[in-house]
């Protein structure tokens, strides 16, 4: 073996959604099983049904078996690497059990050197997701991330065996430190070359190999990794013996600095930078949890166009491909380890456990035994990604420790305030006293937080530890906040001043906030707040308990198919300096506004109405099709100082942004068919009354094809629907969707009825042709 070899074990596997004894045996006959392509999610293949749980999107779980025959690498050392299996996986090679892996989000690896056979081998994986409501959101089921076989010599760098940091950076030079582990290093020599983004070697060093070796390099005129210029370097590590190369390992990294200041916020490469972030769950809509890289690429491009520069992976570690893309595209990442610790959450009601049933038992049952291993495996796999700038040890954990929740006073019978907009009912002194006197329970939140932070810092001290705190007033006093380098607030913008006053040494930021102007206003008015992560960047399946047929939580800036929503354009006006105008309409009756004919006032009747607007943006349309004379509320989202509205060329008035406290321009307009246009000095937008559907317009973007009904003039038709049937040559259909949270049509299909006259097709591969047919209408690309 002269160097490292890797075989992807993605692609065709045999699959059975059932539980069979003996299916792990190498000689087991799987000829009757169906073929599937891994990465694979079997839940998303099913039909939506209200027989299942809304918490996980009204789709089933179950037990499934996967089997694959492969040829060995015939190397001295062989590793089997899984990036993620959901969940409770049992792995067998040639009938011999390698081990179990309960957590569905952490990568894992087996050294199979003494178990792999020369020639043909059989890998079998049993996945037990019978507890299908074990989460508060859609998880998917199966081998939904990449699998690979890695072969090396006996002397080699193990999987995840390097760690690159950049501890000192100036304008003219950077220190790059590379730590390398080597198995069986006796007599071996290590050589490391640093390769710049342009492919040129900029530094090299050689030394005797040790079990753990450290190298320092000086890189002149470093090209920094930044959200606007994500420059990537490589450290190419060569292991040689007797002058021959026996292993080679390439580590991609970025040169950048991160710093949080308790008074001045966040700095990237020494420059003050607002964190303009969004939270994302891991599903990709119609493709479920097995998300192709190109699906994330399209979504990230759209979010970045609105000014998004950061992603919080909520509430679990992301895939390696996801992080690769964030590295390449310049997106900061908060990598989050866990949604549950010692005590479980109720998967249906989102707080303390209230349903002690089989299907809803989650990771808590494995936390005591597996948490350290899972956390450290995630870190070892992910820590070279320059996009990662925070490690989050937990999300909204406080609810699950009863005395912490009770101490805050939010659950007192005589308190009737608004959690989102009012300070904690109990003072700091009251909370401290109650934490002393209330029953402790089996586990202490502060002790667990300290343990998780300790494990994190054993592997990486170059990034801060953070957590998303739903009850920060309690967390400041319970010991939880003492474990953190930065504290994140979940929907508690009202507490920014409280937190800064009580713990002026601890940087604060929003880690889960609403996509609304007042949330961002609260941040830019306070220099000590670093930024926010909005809930959410994209609609996600699940967390729709008891709301059938709502299969999806509609809190995103983008819908499930990646189409832009009203909140997207609002945030784009706040997070992007380029002039932007976006025009929407809605009947006055369905809008949140009242209109006074005498004064011309249109707006909220209640001045505090914004306090009642939570996760889902109010319903707006991007069409101009109503009944003649019907009163329409027209909204314009813009960062321009003034906007003028025109209907069929006639001005309906010039308005000033400063006159709208919520930064939403508003007009009340009697409908007349034709063209409605909003115009500012440097940007404009328009809506035109559409006629009957006369054609289908197809637009391709990577693995995506969008179909939109249009009239004879090419105007999008958004008020009439058709079933569209797709015919695809040269590629495999992965899914179809409309993006509507109420869509319960099968994703795994070649047809779908549109919503707003449009739908999305996702394919695998590069099709030679795609045809869309809707009755007499058809179009091909």
Automatic annotation (TrEMBL):
Residues 264-397 form the Glycoside hydrolase family 2 catalytic domain. Gene3D superfamilies: Galactose-binding domain-like, Glycosidases, Immunoglobulins. Residues 629-681 form the DUF4982 domain. Keywords: Glycosidase, Hydrolase. Residues 162-256 form the Glycoside hydrolase family 2 immunoglobulin-like beta-sandwich domain. InterPro entries: Beta-gal/glucu_dom_sf, DUF4982, Galactose-bd-like_sf, GH, GH2_Domain-Containing, Glyco_hydro2_dom5, Glyco_hydro_2, Glyco_hydro_2_cat. The keyword Acetylation does not apply. The keyword Nucleotide-binding does not apply. Residues 8-150 form the Glycosyl hydrolases family 2 sugar binding domain. Residues 700-769 form the Glycoside hydrolase family domain. GO terms for biological process: carbohydrate metabolic process. Belongs to the glycosyl hydrolase 2 family. This is Beta-galactosidase BoGH2A.
């Amino acid at each position: 073996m002269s160097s490292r070899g890797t075989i992807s074990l993605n692609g065709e596997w045999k699959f059975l959604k059932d539980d069979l004894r003996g299916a792990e045996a190498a000689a087991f006959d799987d000829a009757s099983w169906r073929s599937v392509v891994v990465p694979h999610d079997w839940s998303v293949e099913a039909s939506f049904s209200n027989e299942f749980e809304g918490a996980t999107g009204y789709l089933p779980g179950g037990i499934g078996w996967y089997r694959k025959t492969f040829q060995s690498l015939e190397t001295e050392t062989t590793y089997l690497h899984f990036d993620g299996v959901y969940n409770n996986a049992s792995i067998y090679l040639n009938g011999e059990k390698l081990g179990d892996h309960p957590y569905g989000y952490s990568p894992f690896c087996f050294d199979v050197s003494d178990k792999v056979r020369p020639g043909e081998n059989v890998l079998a994986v049993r996945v037990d997701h019978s507890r299908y409501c074990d989460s508060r959101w859609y998880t998917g089921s199966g081998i939904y991330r990449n699998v690979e076989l890695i072969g090396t010599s006996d002397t080699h760098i193990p999987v995840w065996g390097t760690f690159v940091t950049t501890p000192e950076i100036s304008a003219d030079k950077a220190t790059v430190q590379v730590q390398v582990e080597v198995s069986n290093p006796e007599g071996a020599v290590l050589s490391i070359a640093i390769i710049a983004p342009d492919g040129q070697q900029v530094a090299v060093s050689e030394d005797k190999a040790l079990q753990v070796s450290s190298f320092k390099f000086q890189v002149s005129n470093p090209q920094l990794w930044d959200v606007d210029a994500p420059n990537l370097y490589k450290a190419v590590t060569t292991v040689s013996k007797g002058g021959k190369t026996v292993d080679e390992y390439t580590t991609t990294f970025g040169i950048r600095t991160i710093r949080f200041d308790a008074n001045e916020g966040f700095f990237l490469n020494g420059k003050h930078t607002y964190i303009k972030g969004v939270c994302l769950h891991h599903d990709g809509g119609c493709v479920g949890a097995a998300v192709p890289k190109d699906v994330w690429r399209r979504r990230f491009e759209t979010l970045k166009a609105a000014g998004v520069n950061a992603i919080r992976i909520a509430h679990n570690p992301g895939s390696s491909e996801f992080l690769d893309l964030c590295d390449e595209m310049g997106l900061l990442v908060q990598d989050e380890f866990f949604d549950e610790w010692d005590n479980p959450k109720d998967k249906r009601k989102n707080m303390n456990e209230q349903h002690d049933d089989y299907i809803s038992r989650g990771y808590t049952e494995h936390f005591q035994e597996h948490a350290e291993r899972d956390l450290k495996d995630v870190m070892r796999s992910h820590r070279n990604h320059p996009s990662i700038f925070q490690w989050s040890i937990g999300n909204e954990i406080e609810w699950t420790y009863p005395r912490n929740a009770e101490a805050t006073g939010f659950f007192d019978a005589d308190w009737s305030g608004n959690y989102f907009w009012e300070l904690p009912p109990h003072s700091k002194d009251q909370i401290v006293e109650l934490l002393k006197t209330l029953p402790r329970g089996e586990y202490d939140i502060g002790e667990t937080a300290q343990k998780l932070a300790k494990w994190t810092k054993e592997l990486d001290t170059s990034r801060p530890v953070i957590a998303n705190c739903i009850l920060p007033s309690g967390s400041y006093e319970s010991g939880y906040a003492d474990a953190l380098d930065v504290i994140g607030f979940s929907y508690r913008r009202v507490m920014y001043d409280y937190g800064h006053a009580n713990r002026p040494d601890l940087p604060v930021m929003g880690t889960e906030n609403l996509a609304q102007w007042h949330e961002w206003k609260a941040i830019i008015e306070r220099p000590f707040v670093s930024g926010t992560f909005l809930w959410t960047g994209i609609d996600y399946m699940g967390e729709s308990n008891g709301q059938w047929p709502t299969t999806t939580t509609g809190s995103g800036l983008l819908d499930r198919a990646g189409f832009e929503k009203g909140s997207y354009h609002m945030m784009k006006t706040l997070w992007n300096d380029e002039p932007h105008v976006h025009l929407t309409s809605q009947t006055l009756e369905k809008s949140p506004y009242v209109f006074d004919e005498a004064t011309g006032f249109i707006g909220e009747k209640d001045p505090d109405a914004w306090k009642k607007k939570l996760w889902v943006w109010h319903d707006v349309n991007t069409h101009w099709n109503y009944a003649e004379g019907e009163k329409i509320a027209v909204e314009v989202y813009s960062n321009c100082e003034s906007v003028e509205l025109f209907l069929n060329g006639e001005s309906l008035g010039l308005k000033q942004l400063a006159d709208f406290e919520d930064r939403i321009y508003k007009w009340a307009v009697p409908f007349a068919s034709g063209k409605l246009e909003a115009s500012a000095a440097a940007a404009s937008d328009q809506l035109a009354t559409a006629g009957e559907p006369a054609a289908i317009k197809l637009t391709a973007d990577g693995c995506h094809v969008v179909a939109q009904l249009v009239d004879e003039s090419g105007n999008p038709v958004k008020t009439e629907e058709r079933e569209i049937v797709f015919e695809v040559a040269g590629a495999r259909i992965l899914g179809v969707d409309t993006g509507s949270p109420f869509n319960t049509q099968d994703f795994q299909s070649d047809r779908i009825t549109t919503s707003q006259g449009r739908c999305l097709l996702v394919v695998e591969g590069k099709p030679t042709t795609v045809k869309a047919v809707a009755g007499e209408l058809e179009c091909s690309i």
